[in-house]
Amino acid sequence: MEKISTMDKLKILTDAAKYDVSCSSSGSSRKNTRDGLGNGAVAGICHSWSEDGRCISLLKVLFTNKCIYDCEYCINRRTEDVKRAEFSPRELADLTINFYKRNYIEGLFLSSAVIKNPDYTMELLIEVAKILRYEYKYNGYIHMKAIPGASEDLIRAMGLLVDRVSINIELAKKTDLALLAPEKNYDSIIASMRDVNERKIQAKNEIAIYKHAPKFLPAGQTTQMIVGASGESDLDIITRSEALYNDFSLKRVYYSAFVPVVKSKLTEGIDRAPLLREHRLYQADWLLRFYGFKSKDLLNSSRPSFDLRIDPKTNWAIENIERFPLEINKATYKDLILVPGIGKVYAKRIIAARKFRKLDYLALKNLKISTKRAKNFILVDGKYYGRNFQSKSELKNIMALGDPKAYEQLSLF
């Protein structure tokens, strides 16, 4: 058997990891120790971003791309003719520390194909974490993929060693997973998520009673869904995301536009999903998590997919145009954040400014409010500065053609 060098393994397994997007900075609370190395504290890790918006500060790599599964959408499926490689736990731990000491990375994101069975794979990943934590006394950020179907004891052992885990649900509908990845079990994925959430709640209660009780996944758990591989609607996706957030207190759901990287009869004829669709789902996800929206507010059975020309918040405002225009000098904070072009920061800015004077249109511009987006939904001192329109569809066309910011992502701040 041909021996593969560590650097060749690194090339193969970092490239194989590029389709897993559930990679992020920490939000962890793991502090360094006097004789330790690294810090994954509350402020998060230092990070940079690639042109498509993905975090590139972590060493993002697979433990192996040798897989026992034959998922129809995956480049690492066992029947695909690709070059295979596998690290040893020691090899990967040494690589991580060497990269960290050279300031190439700020943490580790480790996923893996499934070798032999889920428990065997988890044991290998846990061994990497043990070497880093106990031998190298590494206190930096570690994010690992927990393998669905692994025993509860192994998932809990991993949770005591790493900052965050991702358990990828892959597809929004149980029937689609059964069709495209028949060796994966939807119920076992959900069960693993549930166990992680219950153990995290238990650990939080233990810490409240015993100050020095061990932390369990201080940065929580995430998941990933592939967009456009099975004909699912946007409503299917955000409804599933909403349920996952509510049921398991997930930190993030990541969305990955389907790329037809392997030939399959089941995905034949399905083109690459538009990145703009992925982008709209992230915007909708932001509304679910931080603006109090429900999936049923954004889409319904008669309108199951987003209008890609305009962002979901603008689309919602137009569909509920009877609630507008709002008087900018009287509207509450909860109403202001529903206005396209006005987020939480700007709503607070408006409320603070109007304590001192009645706001006019020029004042809104001075406050950096996106009046081009907001003007069709507000009154300013009783005056309407927006466009005249006869129907919702006409207003959508106006917003799509006249709003250069319609294709920008919602601000994170």
Strand percentage: 5-15%
Q: What value does the Rg take, in angstroms?
A: 24 Å
Structural class: alpha/beta
- Low-confidence residue ranges: 41-46, 403-413
β-strand number: 9
Largest sheet, strands/sense/barrel: 6 strands, parallel
Shape: globular
What value does the average pLDDT take?
Answer: 88
Q: How many separate helices? A: 15
Termini separation comes to 52 Å
Q: What is the H/E order?
A: HEHEHEHEHHEHEHHHEHHHHEEH
Strand order in space, largest sheet: 1-2-3-4-5-6
Helix content: 25-40%
Can you put this structure into words, describing what you see?
By secondary structure, the protein is an alpha/beta fold. Helix content is about 40%, strand content about 10%. Strands 1-2-3-4-5-6 form a six-stranded parallel sheet. A three-stranded mixed sheet has the order 7-8-9, with no helix packed on it. Helix 2 crosses helix 3 (about 120-135), helix 4 (about 150-160) packs across helix 6 (about 185-210) and helix 10 runs antiparallel to helix 15 (about 390-400). The longest helix is centred in the middle third of the chain and has 24 residues, at about 185-210. The chain is globular, with a radius of gyration of 24 Å. The termini are far apart. The model is unreliable at about 40-45 and about 405-413 (pLDDT under 50).
